From TrEMBL:
<dbReference type="InterPro" id="IPR012674">
    <property type="entry name" value="Calycin"/>
</dbReference>
<keyword id="KW-1015">Disulfide bond</keyword>
<dbReference type="Pfam" id="PF00061">
    <property type="entry name" value="Lipocalin"/>
</dbReference>
<dbReference type="GO" id="GO:0006629">
    <property type="term" value="P:lipid metabolic process"/>
</dbReference>
<dbReference type="GO" id="GO:0000302">
    <property type="term" value="P:response to reactive oxygen species"/>
</dbReference>
<dbReference type="GO" id="GO:0031409">
    <property type="term" value="F:pigment binding"/>
</dbReference>
<protein>
    <recommendedName>
        <fullName>Lipocalin/cytosolic fatty-acid binding domain-containing protein</fullName>
    </recommendedName>
</protein>
<dbReference type="InterPro" id="IPR003057">
    <property type="entry name" value="Invtbrt_color"/>
</dbReference>
<dbReference type="GO" id="GO:0005737">
    <property type="term" value="C:cytoplasm"/>
</dbReference>
<feature type="domain" description="Lipocalin/cytosolic fatty-acid binding">
    <location>
        <begin position="46"/>
        <end position="179"/>
    </location>
</feature>
<dbReference type="InterPro" id="IPR000566">
    <property type="entry name" value="Lipocln_cytosolic_FA-bd_dom"/>
</dbReference>
Length: 234
């Protein structure tokens, strides 16, 4: 029987365990926004549905049915609970995190550092800017995080207080996106929220900073089983 080196099997299992849905677009520079408004943290508090995100052409799987609950904490921070699905056969996957405000003297829009309990300890906090919101119906969130000395990872999301934006709000959001996100690679993917696709979620009932989540637990199990298999076959 043909055998494979121990390190090769272990690396293959580790590669399969990596979460491929937290992608983004590579860019040499981050976008700048001229919006200037007084952010009201208490009005942003509550449940939001992700209805669009910048499309990552390298993504092989997509997060859908994304629901987030923001709970206002101390000094303008937010506790975050989130659920999502990967495919219509998936059960909701849960994660929790925290958004800490970052303050710059010349900042015109609210900026946060966000981190989930599924984030690799070696990875940096995600930079989050809330570039537009009316608090009651929509929000546009932008992220651009440095990954090395020359490149950044760029992502953006459209959030809604309901699983779908109202028609008049869609027009408003489209005007904003078309005037700001103008690069050829700025293409948007609609996040699925149909009742026949999405399973019921209990995101509002989850305790803060729950375990690392279903996906992380399964990923670690895959790595351990892969290493055990490698030892047995080597």
């Amino acid at each position: 029987m043909k055998t494979f080196p121990c390190w090769m099997i272990a690396m293959a299992c580790l590669w399969c365990a990596v979460d491929g849905n937290q992608g983004g677009l590579l860019t040499l520079s981050c976008m700048t926004f001229e919006e200037d408004y007084n952010f009201k943290e208490d009005k942003f508090d509550g449940t939001w549905y992700e209805v669009r995100r910048l499309s990552d052409p390298s993504a092989t799987q997509h997060e859908d049915c994304v629901v987030m609950n923001y709970k206002l904490g101390e000094q303008g921070s937010f506790e975050i609970r989130q659920s999502y699905q990967v495919g219509d056969e998936s059960e909701p996957i849960y994660r929790s995190g925290r958004a800490e405000p970052k303050v710059y003297q010349d900042a015109r829009i609210p900026k946060f550092f966000e981190r989930f309990n599924t984030t690799d300890p070696a990875d940096p906090d995600i930079s989050i800017d809330i570039v537009a919101t009316d608090y009651s119906s929509y929000a546009v969130v932008y992220s651009c995080t440095s990954i090395n000395s020359t490149h950044h990872l760029e992502s953006a999301w459209v959030l809604s207080r309901q699983p779908a934006l109202a028609k008049n709000v869609v027009e408003l959001v489209n005007l904003f996106l078309e005037s700001r996100f103008t690069r050829p690679d700025h293409k948007w993917r609609a996040t699925i929220h149909t009742a026949d696709y999405c399973k019921p979620t209990s995101v509002e009932d989850l305790p803060m900073y729950a375990g690392a989540g279903t996906r992380t637990a399964l990923s670690m199990l895959a790595v351990l089983l892969g290493m055990l298999l490698a030892v047995l076959l080597y």
